[in-house]
Write a structure and sequence with these properties.
By secondary structure, this protein is α/β, with parallel strands linked by helices. The longest helix is centred in the middle third of the chain and has 17 residues.
Length: 625
């Protein structure tokens, strides 16, 4: 029998400020160990799914997609201290991935409490198809009940799992040298034997190498605002939570070689495949033209009416440009996109919300100008449509539309009401531990004076760019031949000298390991996904305050075929609208930018003077020189 072992309980850097198995190094190390697959089971989220999936395929390793869920007695109860047991769920197939996504979404939208996205067992039963379930670590329900002395309750829970998941339920054994593991493991083995349930062996991987234990400990201190010498803080009992090889697992569980080998069975069961954009098409919002009209007929109707309104007489030049643009838009399947954008812009105008004239490459489209998406005449200014859309472009066109920042949310709310709140989500972003912040955070956790970290960061030049900024400035970065920065010396002599101090060396070594690790989630400033599907049914959603967001960043959402639309909030529009109002009130002059000429010499004189502070897009240093 092949003596291969698959890690099925792994916390990557997306177990924010807890897991420290950086995806790139994790997959590379598994490959070097001869492993054929590896799982990702982050705490309560699926943030790292796409980077993990991509990295595994790049390295020739099978990605196993999972999550360590928090399970409450009742996800709706949100008062007092609530228990949240751990449970490992793994997607066996596409249905399993969708159910994994649904459960994660429910955890964040319905069960979120005190920083944890929680589900409960009735919800799990409802969405159990295509999932593999294991009992998880000592924080799992079965192990907790055993530790509490409720052996009957633990046994009943095992039977519940077996009833729901059948042969896709496994009893999970771990041995990190903990007293509680020595207590629960005999009972887990007994349950497995009594009810003919297969065992699997896992290590609760939070970092890749044993020597990374301190860096992971530091991350936990950053999360909790503690220092390493705080005796009352939460910490791991030892340094056994690393990526072990087959022999190390056998040493930890010498009587459970079958459980070690059974991990291959789970890996063989799993087959989840993502279809990226080059194999698929965009999932445009389900736009319906008014009065039951066909969308293409309505598009043509708007276009012809708009041409008359904008140009009066449609010359052969205009007609040729329109036909060229229209053919490409139709052939690329972007009619619904144009109609959707035009619809919410038109709705904003009807609600009296200031809308920008259009900027970026979208202003080069005569079609967009004719149907009212933009207010800039591309033909007048010789703007190129090809900058916006051309035959070789795979990704969708992208209109940058400005709304007044104090009413932008009203436009997004309109879109939610039109397409359904569960078809619309904002987009997640991740804040990372930037180099200087990593130095300061680690300095605090190690109990070193603030002045030490401040001194180091002030010596770090802002001109050095990613990756590995800390290693670069301390002279520890060595580019390989062929790299663009091969032979470049980024080191700062004062920092190189400081590194000789053992205390500074420890600080720098840890900080360089945690540099650029995800630290917290946030919401994209303007990006919104609008889908024909209920998003939480097909991808996991998260929460940032009151905002419901995707768990995947915008680029990955687009690669999966989801349509990202930008709703930009622009304060300048508020100021312009207020100025127009005051001018009309005080001088009786109504200003309509659509009916103005743009040849006032005084305006060009002002721009030439460089006195352009607070003038949108003309206020940078280059314009003011």
């Amino acid at each position: 029998m092949d003596k291969n072992f698959v890690h099925l309980h792994v916390h990557t850097e997306y177990s924010l400020l807890d897991g420290f198995a950086r995806i790139g190094k994790l997959v590379k190390t598994c490959k070097e160990m001869g492993m054929t697959a590896v799982a990702m089971t982050d705490h309560g989220n699926m943030y790292g799914t796409i980077p993990f999936y991509d990295e595994c395929h790049a390295q020739g390793i099978k990605p196993i997609l999972g999550c360590e869920f928090y399970v409450a007695e009742d996800l709706r109860v949100k008062q007092g201290r609530q228990r949240a047991d751990h449970l490992i769920l793994i997607a066996k197939n596409q249905d399993g991935f969708y159910n994994l996504s649904k459960l994660n979404t429910i955890g964040f939208t319905d069960g979120y409490y005190y920083g944890k996205a929680r589900i409960d067992y009735p919800t799990l039963k409802e969405h159990s198809a295509g999932l593999i379930c294991t009992t998880a670590c000592v924080a799992g329900t079965v192990s907790r009940l055993i530790a509490e002395g409720d052996i009957k309750g633990a046994e009943e829970q095992v039977l519940w799992f077996k009833e729901v998941f059948g042969d896709d339920f496994y009893i999970e054994l771990q041995n990190h040298g903990l007293d509680i593991e020595r207590l629960v493991n005999p009972y887990l083995r007994e349950f497995a034997k009594k009810y003919n349930i297969k065992k699997i062996a896992t290590n609760d991987v939070h970092y890749i190498y044993r020597e990374d234990a301190e860096a992971q400990d530091v991350l936990m201190c950053v999360q909790m605002g503690k220092t390493l010498d705080d005796p009352n803080r939460l910490k791991f009992e030892n340094d056994e939570f690393y990526l072990k090889n087959y022999d190390e697992m056998l040493k930890a569980l010498p009587d459970d070689e079958d459980a070690i080998l059974n991990t291959n069975e789970i890996a063989d069961k799993c087959d989840v495949v993502f279809e990226y954009l080059d194999k698929n098409h965009y999932n445009f919002p389900d736009y319906h033209a008014p009065d039951g009209k066909d969308n293409l007929d309505y598009f043509n109707e708007l276009l012809e009416a708009g041409l008359i309104k904008r140009y009066g007489t449609v010359t052969p030049e205009i007609r040729a440009r329109i036909e060229k643009e229209k053919d490409l838009i139709i052939n690329k399947g972007f009619v619904n996109y144009f109609l959707t954008v035009r619809d919410y812009i038109n709705a904003a105008r009807e609600m009296g919300i200031p809308v920008g004239p259009g900027r970026g490459s979208g202003a080069g489209s005569v079609v967009a100008y004719a149907i009212g998406i933009t207010s800039v005449n591309p033909l007048k200014y010789d703007l190129l449509f090809e900058r916006f859309l051309h035959n070789e472009r795979v990704s969708a066109p992208d209109f940058d539309i400005d709304f007044s920042d104090d009413r932008r949310e009203e436009v997004i709310e309109y879109v939610k009401q039109k397409y359904g709140p569960d078809h619309v989500a904002k987009i997640i972003t991740f804040g990372t531990m930037a180099a200087k912040n990593a130095i300061k955070d680690v300095c605090r956790v190690l109990g070193m004076p603030y002045s030490e970290g401040d001194k180091i960061t002030k010596l770090m030049p802002n001109t050095v760019t990613k990756p590995q900024i800390i290693k670069k400035v301390f002279g520890l970065y060595h580019a390989k031949e062929g790299d663009k920065d091969f032979g470049v010396d980024y080191s700062v002599p004062e920092l190189v000298e400081m590194y000789r101090d053992p205390q500074i060396k420890r600080l720098v070594d840890i900080a360089s390991k945690v540099e650029d690790a995800p630290r917290q989630t946030s919401t994209h400033a303007c990006g919104v996904i609008v889908s024909p599907f209920k998003l939480g049914d097909i991808i996991p959603l998260s929460r940032n305050g009151e905002d419901i967001t995707t768990q995947f960043v915008g680029v990955d959402m687009e690669r999966l075929g989801h349509m990202k639309m930008d709703f930009l909030g622009l304060r300048n529009l508020n100021d312009i609208t207020t100025a127009i109002k005051y001018i009309e009130e005080n001088h009786g002059v109504h200003i309509d930018f659509d009916k103005m000429n743009y040849d006032d010499p005084e305006v060009f004189k002002l721009i030439a003077s460089g006195n352009t502070k607070a003038v949108f897009q003309l206020e940078s240093g280059g314009f003011q020189k």
